[in-house]
Amino acid sequence: MSYRNLEIYKTAFELFLRTHKATFLLPKYELFELGSQLRRSSDSVITNIVEGYGRSCYKNEYIRFLIYSHASNDETINHLEKIMALYPDISLEFETLRNEYNVLGGKINNYKKWAKENWNEKKI
User: Fold this and answer.
1) What is the spatial distance between Cα 74 and Cα 98, in angstroms, rounded to a whole number?
2) What is the value of pTM for the model shown?
3) Coiled-coil ranges per the record (predicted)?
4) CB of 68 within 8 A of CB of 48?
């Protein structure tokens, strides 16, 4: 098994691609401010899943990186909400992403709970 088989990874990767593209709807002066923060936090959701999986032989390390991924997901939601408030004329795309990141956050949290209860060298 690979991290690429995890539903949370697949969803986070697809959302990252869409989020990255959506940031280019922002005004030019925002591309390197809030747009950059959004791209980095969105990327961090995926990266922490991958890095944690690479450390999955150590339960506490694996869980810690899932926690980081969940925190980055929350950060991404916060950036999306700021954009929605600041730029209501383009908020529809960002609102859709926010709603999907909310769902992803629940899935990461559920997977984290599952991993805590079912972890061993053979299952994960």
Assistant:
1) 10
2) 0.93
3) none
4) yes
